[in-house]
Amino acid sequence: MSELFDAVDALVASRSVLPPPAERKRLRAAHGLTIDEVATALKVRRATVSGWEAGKTEPRPPERDAYARLLDKLAELYPAPTTPAAPEQGTPVPETEGSTGEPAPAPDVRARAGAPVAEAAAVTATEKTQTGNTQAPASAPAPVAPPEAATPPVRTTSPSSTSHRPGVEKAASAGTPADGGDPRFANGPLAVVDVDTDGQVLAYCTGGLVLDVPAKSLPSLVEWTLREARLGAPRLSGSGKDADPLLVLTPSALERYGLPVALTDEERHAGRLPEDHKVIKQLVRTDWKLTKRGLGPWARIYRPATGSDRQCVQLGIPSWNALDPRSWGHAGQLPPADLARVLGVYASRVMTPRGSTAVTGLELMTALHPPTRASEPDATGKRHSEHNPGSLGKDPVDCAPCEAPDGHPLLKDLARFHVRGPGEKLFEEAYDWARPMTDDECTLRHLVGIDVNMAFAAGANGLVVGLGGPTHVKAPVFDAKLPGSWLVDLSHVDLSRVKTGKDKWADLDASLLPSPFTPSGERPQVPAWYATPTVAYAVELGYEVRPLEAYVRYENGRYLDGWYNRLRDAFLATMADLGVHADLSPADFLAAMDGYKERDPELAIVVSAVKATVKGGLGKLRERPRGEGWKPGQAWRALARPTWRPDIRAAVISRTRINLHRKIVKHAAFTGQYPVAVLSDCVVYAADGPSPLDFLPYRDGKPLPGGFKLGINPGLVKWEGTQSVLWGEEVRERFNAPELNLARYIKDGQVTDKDSGE
């Protein structure tokens, strides 16, 4: 009889009532849960939960009953908002954006009544990109307006500050959030503050909203922002903090609030205004404080928190070089509304900028993995702060001596001019390698460069890194699953014969390949320090390794997975808005990439900023001294951060370089073609034709397994540039440099000086 009861229970569970896919996502995000957390709890893959929320698949027993139970409990905590009355024909409807509470795909948006046809098409295209159902177009899609460009209804913030959208009628009551989410942040994450020709101060928010600002001074502007503007963004993690509102001040706003339009040379070098500036005195008199970096390009103005009440506003000042052109292009010169759009897209898909893209990249790691969380209630019902598992914690840890950069306090006893060799220093960096062309390659017509998309982000995906400090081990047995730094001799690894699969070996011309073990591509001659992915690759190639010693990290985890997922989704969603989708055929992908930046130059800025966030965030893991009177052997400010982790940076770079070398070996073994030059994530090959399709071995539209594949996803490749073989030979002869790295110049062919390797 019990078996019959079990069968009946299984039938009931198989039909557990579930809310619609969009509601599933809303409930999860409302509780601050990530897709990864739900997947872990239900013991399924992340992609499975994503499929349930996208409506692609439905859960089956036994997970369905548990999933329904989770959603039922969340629905009790977060009832669905009351559906507003249907708008009149032609009136824009508020757009529902995806939660920023987890590393999710592009914001979940739906075409709505009255929305322009082009916009609805853009929304549909974005959705299809997320679900993988887009049909490959015959040619590059026409330019489309991204979902964020839509004009939501007018909202007012309070009797003392009005809002308006030129040409748009009022359609929603005050207090209705723009995204249907947290009413505290109804007007978005940020505003660009400007002064119009009539002298009125305006705050340009995301979605086209414009607020009238009554504040007459910087302290009153901060007060207004916190009390009335309803700016900010919800936390990205359940144990994290909400994002503080960001105000971006234009030159006219700087003048209105008594700040200089540009910094003097001395102020620019110091990175801030002097402490005796009149505006800083105004802030002090009204009990506002500045963080240690003072009032500079990125400033934080706050009052000490009382309980859970945070009072903090961030300023960004483009004319003081807050938006570095190397990351943000011409964003600093955009009109206020356009700048609000660019920063708003970035904020919704990555996070509200906290400084440079490098700073934001690092802050994103912490936002997704806060160092502490609230404990379970104790006997008195109180909760306490405790370590958040999977995070780097709240205290910094020492690196291993081999991981320490020159000048680190761990090395203070070294002789002043001592140069550490490979047996003393971990040196995991990106490739900078080139070789002379062979006679056969010189008979070909073209040099074609391909570039790996988001290469360092892809290197971080799924990577196990240390969470705590290192443990020193003598003569260890190598463990590819254990992150750390290993002193090992890899000089015996011979690339002329390598393993390319299970019981499958390939004979190659090692003289035409870079070594995978050094950034210069030169074969190592002595024992050296390597990160785990590098040593693991030597084993993968079929060679035994015997480390002499190691610094390993037994406390470890996939710390960067959420970070990678969020940046990947931001990149793919923005590229989809630009007409480049994730499932295009090789030829259609190349066509879509041709001139994609011109389709929407503002969104192209967001793409650039997302890429810079990846590289800059990883670079910050080993930030070096920045002036401040530092001397070798002394500690510098960055060392006090839990996120100062050179070992994590080294592991990501190691894995990125190894991923690239693996593809190069697969390609050489299958085609007999070898790279002419490699620079970081760009590889140059000699070919008969000018296109990557002229040398990449596609068969029936399918790429070589494990080799290079054209596409927009991180880890896949795009066309970087093509020059003639004659061009390559000419520039090398002109500079008398037979190994000039042509990958550095393949994009536009402009060589202005001899390659310095920098």
Mean pLDDT: 85
What is the percent of helical residues?
A: 25-40%
Adjacency order of strands in the biggest sheet: 1-4-3-2-5-8-7-6
What is the approximate shape?
A: globular
Spell out the key features of this protein.
758 residues, alpha+beta, 13% strand, globular, disordered C terminus
Q: What features would you describe in this structure?
A:
The strands form 6 sheets. The chain has an 8-stranded mixed β-sheet with strand order 1-4-3-2-5-8-7-6. With 758 residues, it is of the alpha+beta class.
Question: Short summary of the structure?
Answer:
The chain is of the alpha+beta class and 758 residues long.
Walk me through the topology.
Elements: H1 2-14, H2 21-30, H3 35-42, H4 46-54, H5 63-77, H6 117-131, E1 163-164, E2 190-195, E3 201-205, E4 210-212, H7 218-227, E5 246-249, H8 251-256, H9 265-270, H10 278-285, E6 289-290, E7 298-306, E8 309-316, H11 325-328, H12 336-349, H13 357-368, E9 372-374, E10 385-387, E11 432-434, H14 439-442, E12 446-452, H15 455-460, E13 465-466, E14 471-474, E15 484-488, E16 497-501, E17 504-507, E18 528-531, H16 532-540, E19 549-552, E20 556-557, H17 561-577, H18 586-593, H19 596-599, H20 601-620, H21 646-671, E21 677-679, E22 682-687, E23 717-724, H22 725-734
Helix pairs in contact: 3-4, 6-17, 12-20, 13-20, 16-21, 17-20
